[in-house]
Amino acid sequence: MALNPLTEAASAAPSSGAAGAEGSGPDRRGLLPLLFAGNSVMYALYIGVGGILLPLQIEQITPHHKVAVLGLVSGVSAVFAALFNPVAGALSDRSGRRNPWILTGGLLAVPVMALMGAVNSVLLVGIAWCLGQAVMNVYQAAITSVVPDRIPVERRGAASAAVGLGMPVGSILGVLVANGFSDHFRTGYLTLGALVAAGAVLFTGLSREPKGSAGPQQPRQQPTLGQRAAAFTDSLRAHDFRWAFIGRALLVLGYFSVSGYQLYILQDHIALPHGMSPTGAVAILTPVASVAMLVSIAVCGPLSDRLDARKRFVGISAAAAGCAMVIPMLSPTFTGMAVFGVVNGLAFGCYMAVDTALVTLVLPRAEDAARDMGVLNIANAAPQIVAPFVASVVVGAAGYTTLFLVGGVLSILGALAVRPIRSVR
C-alpha cells in the first residue's frame, strides 16, 4: 500500500495537515477550482444520464413498464458502482497516484457513452450503463481521495464546498445538455462523455501530484483477497467512521428514492402548467434547486470551518432534507415542486458542503485514505442499488405520495445517525 505523506499529515492532526499542505507549493492555490471543475463534469454525466436520458430511452423502449425497468437497470448498474469504487480507491492507494486513474476513467467515459447512445434494447442499455457506472466510479474514487491527500484539516470545509459546488453546477449543466438532446440520445450521451474527458484532462494536466506520492515507500507483500475483504470490514469497525457511513447511506437512500424518478413524477403525478413538458419542467426545477444549493454550500462550508461544528451542520441539514419531502405531498403541483426544490436544495447543499469534511476527519487510517473513502462511498453507491427497487415497489403499491413519505423518513433517520459520532463537533 502506498504511503502518501500528505494523506497521513492531513488525517493525523490539524497542525500536521497544515504543514503538509503548505509544503506542496503554488499548485495548491489552483487545486480547489480544479476539484470544482472535475466534480462538476462528473455530476453533469450522472444527472444528465440518470435523470433524463436514461429514463427517456427506457420509456421509448418499453413505455408500459418504464417504472419497473428503470428500477431494474438503475439498481443493477449501481452494483457496479458499489464494487468499482472501493476497489479503484484501493488500487490508486497501492499505485500511490490519483491522476492516472482520474485520466483513465475520464477518457473511457467517451466510448462508453457512445455505446449507451447506440443500443436499443433493455438488456443492452443495462449492460452499457453498468460499464458507465464502472468507468465513472474509477474516476470518482480517485478524485474524491484528492481531498484527504492534499488539503489540510483546517481547510477541509472550503475543499468540501468546492467539491459540493460541483453537484448543483454539474446538475444544471447535465440537465441542460440532456434536455437539449432529449430527441437525440446519441449526441446527448457523447456530449456528456466528452465533458468528463475534458475535465479529466484539465485536472491531470494542471494539478501535479506532490513529490513522494509516486508509489510505495517500501515494497510490501501483496495481500490476499481474504485480507483485502477483512481490511474493508475493519474500516467499519471504527465507531465514528461507521456512524458516518450509516448516516450518509440513509440520506442518500432517501434522496435517490425520489430524485431517480423525478421525470416520471412530473409526467404522471404533478399538475404542470399548460404547455410545459416534463423535460422542460426538469430544466426549470433543476436550476432553481441548484441555485439554492449553491447559496447553501457557499455559506455552510466556510461557516463550518469557522464554528468547528460540522456534525451539527450535517445533522440539521439531513433533517431539513427529510422535512422538505412533505411539501410535494401536500401540494402536488409545479409550484409545490419548485418550493420543494428550493428547501431541499438548501438542505442538501449544506449537507454536501460539510459532510465530506466530516468524513475525512473520521477516517480510521491515513495510509489507507483512498481505500476507506472508497468504503465510505459504498454509502453513496449501495443505496442507489436499493433505491430504484424500493421506489418502484412503493410507487406500484401506494403511489408517488408515499414515495415522498418514505424518502423523508429515511433522511431524518440519516440525521439522527450522526449523533453518536464522538470525535467531531
UniProtKB/TrEMBL annotation:
Domain called Major facilitator superfamily (MFS) profile: residue spans: 240-425
Keyword Transmembrane helix: yes
Keyword hit for Signal: no
Membrane topology: Multi-pass membrane protein
InterPro entries, sorted: MFS, MFS_dom, MFS_trans_sf
Localization terms from the record: Cell membrane
Descriptive protein name: MFS transporter
Provenance organism: Streptacidiphilus alkalitolerans
Organismal lineage: Bacteria, Bacillati, Actinomycetota, Actinomycetes, Kitasatosporales
